[in-house]
Design goal:
The chain has helices spanning about 10-25, 30-40, 45-50, 65-70, 70-80, 90-100, 105-110. With about 130 residues, it is mainly alpha-helical. The radius of gyration is 17 Å and the shape is globular. The N and C termini lie far apart (about 50 Å).
Length: about 130
């Protein structure tokens, strides 16, 4: 899609995909909004990690792709909730290493930066970092 200088909006098919996703969403509307925000913010990381096997994955967030792969996005989001490196100052560098398949280097950088996993909001005093 090329930028024509006109406002870009969703067409009928994009709207249908968004409505379908919303209709089948098992959680609250607020959780859907949070999920969509997380998906957009972590799109590059998802393409570099979870979907690196694809020869061509969307460079920018795509509602059709997200709808087809919603379970993958949900699983990764649930597994990685609280990982501070995703929003840290070296997030792009780490994402690029992951995209290049250099997982060991990315994990080493995470450890080098001493980026810790944050406790989940409902963990209370049961969460102890070693």
């Amino acid at each position: 899609m090329f930028h024509t200088g006109k406002p870009v909006g969703w067409g009928v098919k994009h709207q249908a995909s968004a409505k379908s996703l919303a209709k089948t969403w098992p959680d609250t509307t607020e959780e859907l909004h949070a999920f969509l925000e997380w998906s957009v913010q972590n799109w590059s990381m998802m393409m570099a990690g979870e979907f690196r096997w694809m020869k061509q994955s969307p460079n920018a967030p795509d509602i059709h792709f997200l709808k087809r792969h919603v379970q993958n996005f949900r699983e990764v989001r649930e597994q990685n909730t609280g990982q501070a490196w995703r929003t840290g100052p070296r997030a792009m560098e780490i994402s690029m290493l992951l995209m290049a398949g250099k997982d060991d280097e990315a994990h080493a950088l995470i450890e080098e930066e001493n980026i810790s996993v944050q406790p989940p909001p409902d963990a209370g005093e049961a969460f102890h970092e070693e």
